[in-house]
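During the reporting period the student researcher (J.K.) took over the structure-prediction task from the postdoctoral fellow and processed the backlog of single-chain submissions. One of the processed entries is reproduced below for the supervisory committee.
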Amino acid sequence: MKFKAFFSRFVLVLTPMFLTLFSISCNSPEVQSEQPSELIWDAEQKLKDLGIVLPEASSPVANYVNAVRSGNLLFLAGKGPGLPDGTFITGKVGQDLTIEEGKEAARMVAINQLAVLKAELGDLNKVKRVVKVLGMVNCNSDFTQQPQVINGFSDLMVEVFGEKGKHARSAVGMNALPMNIAVEVELIVEIEDN
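J.K. obtained the following structure tokens:
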């Protein structure tokens, strides 16, 4: 009986020590390196999963180009909410359009800017990071919900690019935008070296 009591105490003392050593060994770099690596984010596949078919990138409406590359940064000119039939979502948000309609217009701008990126890069997976967004909302001076409207753009960037889609941003109101479009967005992205 004395041996049985001694053995029980022995197990009670050694079990926590054994579990601690086992935990340390499992968290060692050698063991971690054997675990499967994280899946690589695929923006092209994500676009398909969302059911989005990119339109052809529209031509500039004046004397400028859709994008300019400087080093590893790609600066995209402002785009509006162009629809597949060639028309635009127009009007002042908060007056002619609801906030939700303005948000949908901003999402359409995101699709149009993705089309420009695809035309420039050939593959959306070459985007290393969405860096900066400037969102302009056509609205009256008493409208103050520009951030909620531009979320339509920002949300899609994060849906398509994941963590790489999170960006710095400005969302501002404008008394007027070209052709009375509801929203215009400029974009800066960092691209891969190759």
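The committee noted the following: The longest strand covers residues 127-138.
J.K. will present the remaining backlog at the next meeting.
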